[in-house]
Amino acid sequence: MSENLLTLSGVHTHIGAYHILHGVDLVVPRGQLTMLLGRNGAGKTTTLRTIMGLWRASQGRITFGGEDIAQLPTPRIAELGVAYVPENMGIFADLTVKENMLLAARGARSVQQIDRNRLEWIFSLFPAVEKFWNHPAGKLSGGQKQMLAVSRAIVEPRQVLIVDEPSKGLAPAIINNMIDAFASLKQSGVTILLVEQNINFAKRLGDSVAVMDNGVVVHAGSMKALAENEELQHSLLGLAL
């Protein structure tokens, strides 16, 4: 079994007339939390969307669990065990929290058919999901919506969880709660790929890191090594962690 669950090799992505990714090489080690960092416009979100098949790679390979998924449709990629939480969270505002969760639990026709032990585990990670179970999702705060978005992604077992900027716009207390939840997810064996701008979030959670600039990965290594090298941080990100 490969130690890398997800691998991108020479991936290019065009969106209309625009060439966004210029040969991305990225590895996501099995059982680890990989941070994908970079300035705005570096290609991070495009990379995530290309992995999910929402935008099609025009060149290169995307290998998941040994299978090339670069040309697979998004539903098939999800069926293989890849969960994606986009930056906008994708919450169905007019549905209740319960109904949002039921939609994500594709193997269940009713809430009673959702694995109860798994639900209790999710409630332990995100108590607000249980507290607002019967409330319209559109009435939740930003932090509560983010918790719901992650909860939907893990309501069924997944091999890898891909999340785009989970801490964006959240209060510090909610960010700490989110960090604890992702740490618990990692301990449960879920492989995680996170795009994040909150540097404290990245330092506390990341095992490995890849830094993007202008549509390519310009640095890859351990998160700890990057966090301890201020000169490298400045050269890659224009700031110190």
Walkthrough of the structure:
35% of the residues lie in helices and 28% in strands. It is an alpha/beta fold. The strands form two sheets. Strands 6-7-8-3-9-10 form a six-stranded mixed beta sheet, sandwiched between helices. It has a four-stranded antiparallel beta sheet with strand order 2-1-4-5. Helix 3 packs parallel to helix 6 (142-153). The two termini are 34 Å apart.
Strand order of the largest sheet: 6-7-8-3-9-10
Q: What would CATH call the class of the largest domain?
A: Alpha Beta
Give the biggest sheet: 6 strands, mixed
Number of domains: 2
Average pLDDT confidence is 92
H and E order? EEEHEEHEHHHHEHEHEEHH
The amount of beta strand, in percent, is: 25-35%
Q: Which superfamily, in CATH terms, is the homologous superfamily of the largest domain? A: P-loop containing nucleotide triphosphate hydrolases
Percentage of residues assigned to helices? 25-40%
Label the CATH architecture of the largest domain: 3-Layer(aba) Sandwich
**Counted beta strands:** 10
What is the fold-level CATH name, i.e. the topology of the largest domain? Rossmann fold
Intertermini distance: 34 Å
Low-confidence stretches: none
Radius of gyration of CA atoms, rounded to a whole number = 18 Å
Output the structural class.
alpha/beta
SS element count, helices: 10
Shape: globular
Quick overview of this protein structure:
InterPro entries: AAA+_ATPase (IPR003593), ABC_transporter-like_ATP-bd (IPR003439), ABC_transporter-like_CS (IPR017871), BCAA_Transport_ATP-bd_LivF (IPR052156), P-loop_NTPase (IPR027417). With 241 residues, the chain is α/β, with parallel strands linked by helices. The protein has helices spanning 44-51, 74-79, 97-104, 116-125, 127-131, 142-153, 172-187, 199-205, 223-227, 230-237; strands at residues 4-15, 18-29, 33-38, 57-64, 67-68, 82-85, 160-164, 191-195, 208-213, 216-222.
